[in-house]
Write a structure and sequence with these properties.
The protein is mainly α. The protein has two domains: about 55 residues; about 60 residues, no CATH class. Helix content is about 65%, strand content about 10%. A three-stranded antiparallel beta sheet has the order 1-2-3. The radius of gyration is 34 Å and the shape is rod-shaped. The termini are far apart.
């Protein structure tokens, strides 16, 4: 009894085809897994950047000054975040908000007066 060449060829083709399909399926699953991981990472990164911007940028887009724990020099309350304004004041978020808005208004008024004086 010998080996039938046709049966041997069919069996080898089935084995090679099965291994090839298994490898291609593994690559496809790995690619999908990696793509999903990248998509999740990008979403988390965008959320973290947005959260960072809301904490570190004022509503007008300018950055907040350096901050740390301390006591507000205007309202005399302790706070986890005290901003060190350029004027030498140490202000809590509520006091700093009114401070920079007043500062912006006074800058706009000064610019308007300078423009009117030059005309």
């Amino acid at each position: 009894m010998g080996v039938d060449p046709q049966t041997l060829a069919n069996n080898l083709a089935i084995i090679i085809g099965g291994v090839t399909l298994l490898l291609l399926g593994s690559v496809a699953i790995y690619s999908l897994w990696t793509g999903a991981s990248i998509a999740i990472w990008l979403v988390q990164r965008r959320r973290a950047e947005k959260a960072f911007k809301t904490v570190s940028l004022r509503p007008d887009g300018k950055p907040y000054p350096p901050s740390m724990d301390g006591v507000c020099s205007r309202c005399k309350r302790g706070n986890r975040r005290i901003y060190f304004a350029g004027s030498g004041h140490e202000l809590c978020p509520a006091c700093y908000d009114s401070f920079w808005r007043d500062e912006e208004r006074s800058d706009e008024i000064a610019k308007g007066e300078a423009k009117a004086a030059s005309e």
